[in-house]
Amino acid sequence: MMRGAFADVPLTVLFPFLTSADVDSLRQTASTVDAARAARPTADWEWRVGHAASPGTQSGTPIVLGLDVIEAAAGGDQLEFLLQVVMTDSGRLAVDAAVNVACWCETEHATHDVDALRLAVGGEMSLPDAFRVGAERLTGWLDEPYDADHWRSGAGLPARWIN
């Protein structure tokens, strides 16, 4: 996995079907995400060329391009915001955006998605359009409270154990 600024992402290598207008659109969208998290410690964008090169032949949901913004809190609590372009099992691209919280259930589940969005790319939804919609959702979430229990409550999950 490579890491760096969005300007370092080899978009036409990852997605050779992109036009120059598509590349410009992805870069503009990424700049709005970067601006939304400018007051926080920034996370690097991550990408893996190999995940884009072999559609349908990889297990799981390989991340082609993504951003993972983790907010750690006292007591081992965690809030995570994701924006990812992934390769689905069917060999198609999708854009995923999600909010995850650390699990405080009696049975340890590690994390829970408390809000998530998946947009399939193809047909009427282009990669730049799906990326923009996912980014808009992510930047909206970044305006929400940075209290993981706020998100757990909205999803009907147990609050963090306080020792």
Shape: globular
DSSP strand count = 6
Measured between the Cα atoms of the first and last residue, the distance is 37 Å
Q: Taking all residues together, what is the mean pLDDT?
A: 86
Contiguous uncertain segments of 5+ residues: none
> Considering DSSP H and I runs of 4 or more, what fraction of the residues is helical?
25-40%
- Which structural category fits the helices and strands? alpha+beta
- By DSSP (H or I, 4+ residues per run), the number of helices equals 5
* Major sheet details: 6 strands, antiparallel
Instruction: Please indicate the percent range of residues in DSSP E strands (runs of 2 or more).
Output: 25-35%
| Order of strands across the main sheet | 1-2-3-4-5-6
| Series of secondary-structure elements, N-terminal to C-terminal | EHHEHEEEEHH
Rg value: 16 Å
Description:
This protein is α+β, with helices and mostly antiparallel strands. It has five helices and six strands. The protein has helices at residues 11-14, 20-36, 49-53, 127-142, 148-155, and strands spanning 2-4, 45-47, 63-72, 78-87, 93-102, 111-120. It has a six-stranded antiparallel beta sheet with strand order 1-2-3-4-5-6. The model has no long low-confidence stretch (mean pLDDT 86).
